[in-house]
Structure formats: C-alpha cells, structure tokens
Amino acid sequence: MTKDEWISSHYVIQRTDGVLYKLKSHFDFSFLSKYGKVFKVFDDQDSGNICFDVVNGDKKVFIKFAGAPTARSIVSTEDAIVRIKSTIPIYRVLAHPSLTKLIATDDIGGGFALVFEWTDGECMGRMYPQSRQKFMQMPLETRMKVFDDVLSFHAHVAQNGYVAIDFYDGCIMYDFNISRTVICDIEFYAKMPYTNPLGRMWGSSRFMSPEEYERGAVIDEITNVYTMGATAFAFFGDERNKRLEQWTLRKGLYDVAKRAISDERCQRQQSIGQFIADWNAACEER
Fold first, then answer.
1. Of 134, 161, 246, 267, whose CB is crowded by the most CB atoms within 10 A?
2. 174-211: per-residue pLDDT in tens?
3. Where are the alpha helices (DSSP H) in the chain?
4. Terminal alpha carbon distance of the chain
5. Which residues contact residue 158 at a Cβ distance below 8 angstroms, ignoring those fewer than 6 apart?
C-alpha cells in the first residue's frame, strides 16, 4: 500500500479552492471565502487546529482554525476552541518583532479562527524536510543571527512574566526575501508561576527538560534555559545526540549549550539573560 492509499483509507480527503487536505470526517470550510482563496493547507498538527494560507488580490493572510475534526488531533474540537481563544492575550502581551502578528479573530464556521499577518517563511522543523534542508544550508552567520532572534524573543517572554511551553524547531521560520526570523505557535506559553499539570507535558522530547515530565514540578525561566540549549544544538549540530558537529573546535560554545541542558536545574544558567551573556562571550572567543 502506498502512502497516498494509506491516507485515503484512514482519512477523509477534502478540497478547498483546488487544494487537497485530510480530516477525520467532512467539514464545511466554505466560510474561508470571506478571506479569499486558499492556496496552501497545513493539516498535520496534533493541537486540533488546521491552518490555511489565503490570498485575496495582493493581500495574503495565515488563518489558524479550531473546531474541525483534524486528522491528527489529540484533543476534542471543543477543547481546541477553548485553547485557541485562550491564546489571544498571549499573542498581544508577547508582541515582538520576531513573533508572527495576530491581526484579527473570528467566531466563524462553528469554530474559532485566528488571522495572522502572512509571511513567506521556511520552517526549520523536521516535519518539513525540504524547508528544513534549505534552512540548515544557510550560512553559519545567518543561522547565528536567527538563533540570536530566538534568544531575544525568549528573553522578552521572561521579562513579561511568561514561560515558553511546547517550543521546538517547528516554531521557527525564516523569510529569505526580507531576512526576517518568524516565531509562531506560542499557544501553550503560560503566565508564571506555573507548575507541570500533567507529567509528560506538551512538546517535542528533543527540546524538553526533565521537569517537563514530572507532575507538579516548577516550569520557569530555568526550564526555558534548557529549551534554548537544546535549540542551540538543533541550529548548529544535532539536538538528539547533543553534538555541535560543525563546531568541534569551538569548545566554549559547546560548553554553554551543554550546561544549559543539564538535568540538574541548579547546574544550568539561571536565566535566559545569563545564557545569552555566556553565549555571546563564547562567540567572541571563537
């Protein structure tokens, strides 16, 4: 059985404006015509959301919708709607030059939509192999700049009293046309103080600290230091085996990233600011 045959046997395949995508069952997306014509669909999220790139004349927007029976959802449509509505103040409080810009919200189609400024970005996430390859082939200095932007945003997150949750490489994009870093999908970011309510929390295990597996554990800026350390390995080596493959001679940078992903919280840098200071100092020593 081919991959396409397997998909068609397990999901319903729909078409909107000529673009195919999969769902657990049929859903009416005719309301999207309010915004224009769909030219791309992102249907593989497990959050319960489905996303659309839409064009109307010379204007494009990115729409994230909750309320449809998405193919890989691990939550009910009702829970997905509650979650997406709860993220509105998060995007407003954490507005930043590198954060995708929320421009409108809409109670529509039996669900709820967030409408974002569109960006022509390439994602570094492993779930998008082609764009990841393009991203990882960027010059080292460009990736250094993108990583600096990621750090700057998360320093901003901490300064506003929030903690990053479910941040991983799939949240990072780069617009090659205007040399801009774009961060998206911050729906699970939370106001501090925050404790682990689940045990195994939301997110990619490649970027998750030990406390994100321990129910009742404190989730805070020190947790995010771990996330930034893992992100450094993702940018410049391999976050799975924690090697800086390209930087074998740059021990200072490796030491900073390795310290950040210590299992013991007390051994990590104790703030994003401290991680940034250590990282920058090591960069100057190259």
1. 134
2. 999 999 999 998 989 999 999 999 999 988 999 999 99
3. 3-10, 77-86, 88-93, 129-136, 140-159, 221-236, 251-260, 272-284
4. 51
5. 221, 224, 271, 272, 273
User: Assign residue 184 a region: left if phi > 0, alpha if psi is -120 to 50, beta otherwise?
Assistant: beta
Q: pLDDT for 73-102, tens place per residue? A: 888 999 999 999 999 999 999 999 999 999
What are the structural domain ranges in the chain?
A: 3-117, 122-284
pTM listed for this prediction: 0.88
Specify the fold of 122-284.
Transferase(Phosphotransferase); domain 1 (1.10.510)
Assess whether pLDDT exceeds 70 at residue 254.
yes
* CATH placement of domain 3-117: 3.30.200.20
Q: In this structure, are residues 150 and 236 in contact, taking their beta carbons and an 8 Å threshold?
A: no
H or E element in which residue 163 lies: strand 162-163
Query: What would the two tokens of residue 276 be?
Result: 């940034």
Contacts of 46 (CB under 8 A, 6+ apart): 72, 73, 74
What is d(CA 43, CA 29) in angstroms, rounded to the nearest whole number?
Answer: 13
